[in-house]
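The following record pairs a protein chain with its ligand, iron/sulfur cluster.
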Amino acid sequence: MSTRHRTTHPTNQPAGSRWRQRAACRDNDPDLFFPTAAPGTPAHDRQAAPAKKVCRRCPVTADCLAEAFARIPNGVAGGLTEHEREQARRGGRKARTA
Ligand code: SF4
């Protein structure tokens, strides 16, 4: 994965906005949030579990998830994997067109 995809993740950002200053992942290794297994596979889910655990105790999950939908294409962010965010996007589109 290119580093370009990692630059928008809260673990790699300066604390420019207020919510990023409160991110639970700020002191974590960014690698924790970027599983290497194929998205949507059980191996990916196992690798993503520690990052999701950090997200569960994060006070700014909603802010992060909104940012993730807009600007974080890869990795675990807002408590969801990239695959789960894509599924949510598709679900949202279906709901809007139904
Ligand atoms: S929700 Fe997860 S990825 Fe987002 S700021 Fe919090 S700990 Fe970091």
